[in-house]
């Protein structure tokens, strides 16, 4: 995407991260329904998310994790539309570390929405929560997700050959890490300002 003088065009629509709540379950389930084929190769949970009740259970678990102080799951809202979800796997407080995960609905890729959302989450993780290390684990075949980690300045630590049980078989996972001392990573201003984290309603 480029402007008249070859500069990237920055998305101008507001990009907001809202903690997931029961009133978002319909939007989240609708996005998973319309994105099944897109998510199926990468997200094991999509194979067991058959109905709205499964999404409500995800929201319930996310809110329990948040109430326990172990990290928030956010809806990624772009111009008032739900575009995806980003959040923490439960924070390991003794080590001050956590993994983050994310997905976008079909049609929302290629706009920098996850990179900019992750910047806001990393700001929160390192600057507000005082975490020391954030990890990202992606399927070895998921180059697109690996590009997100690399764009954010994460280092590739290695590969877990049996990293994740995926429906009916093990798949290898690439492990990435970023330490607080390395943040912010090699992001360029042209990549846009971070998303805004809103309080839970
Ligand atoms: C992984 C996934 C979130 C990556 O989506 P994405 O759109 O590539 O990531 P971003 O939102 O950060 O956008 C980056 C892309 O937008 C482009 N872009 C446009 N404007 C941009 C901006 N302002 N800032 C950054 N990138 C921008 C980048 O060039 C890049 O495109 P490229 O990869 O073709 O070079 C998405 O593919 C997805 O949801 N996949 C299925 C679920 C999944 O795999 N989740 C991760 C499991 S580990």
Describe the structure.
This protein is of the alpha+beta class and 201 residues long. The chain has a single domain (15-186), classed as Gcn5-related N-acetyltransferase (GNAT) (Aminopeptidase). 27% of the residues lie in helices and 29% in strands. The chain contains five helices and eight strands, in the order E-H-H-H-E-E-E-H-E-H-E-E-E. The chain has an eight-stranded mixed beta sheet with strand order 6-7-5-4-3-2-1-8, with helices on both faces. Strand 2 and strand 3 (81-88) form a beta hairpin. The longest helix is centred in the N-terminal third of the chain and has 16 residues, at 52-67. It is globular.
Describe the SSE topology.
Blueprint lengths: L14 E5 L5 H10 L1 H4 L12 H16 L5 E6 L2 E8 L8 E8 L8 H16 L4 E7 L3 H9 L3 E12 L2 E11 L16 E2 L4
Parallel strand pairs: 1-8, 4-5
Antiparallel strand pairs: 1-2, 2-3, 3-4, 5-7, 6-7
The protein binds coenzyme A.
Short description:
The chain has 201 residues and is α+β, with helices and mostly antiparallel strands. It has helices at residues 25-34, 36-39, 52-67, 113-128, 143-151; strands spanning 15-19, 73-78, 81-88, 97-104, 133-139, 155-166, 169-179, 196-197.
């Amino acid at each position: 995407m480029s402007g008249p003088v070859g500069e990237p065009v920055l998305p101008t629509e507001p990009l907001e991260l809202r903690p997931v709540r029961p009133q978002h379950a319909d939007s989240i389930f609708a996005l998973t329904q319309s994105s099944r084929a897109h998510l199926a190769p990468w997200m094991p949970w999509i194979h067991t998310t058959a109905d709205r009740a499964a999404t409500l259970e995800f929201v319930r678990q996310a809110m329990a994790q948040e109430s326990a102080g172990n990290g928030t799951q956010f809806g990624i809202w772009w111009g008032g539309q739900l575009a995806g979800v980003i959040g923490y796997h439960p924070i390991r407080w003794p080590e001050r570390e956590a993994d983050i995960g994310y997905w976008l609905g079909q049609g929302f890729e290629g706009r920098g929405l996850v990179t900019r959302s992750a910047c806001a989450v990393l700001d929160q993780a390192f600057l507000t929560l005082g975490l020391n290390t954030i990890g990202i684990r992606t399927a070895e075949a998921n180059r697109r997700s690996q590009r997100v980690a690399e764009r954010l300045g994460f280092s590739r630590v290695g590969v877990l050959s049996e990293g994740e049980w995926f429906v009916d078989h093990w798949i290898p996972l690439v492990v990435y890490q970023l330490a607080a001392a390395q943040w912010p990573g090699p992001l360029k201003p042209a990549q846009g300002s971070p998303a805004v984290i809103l309080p839970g309603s």
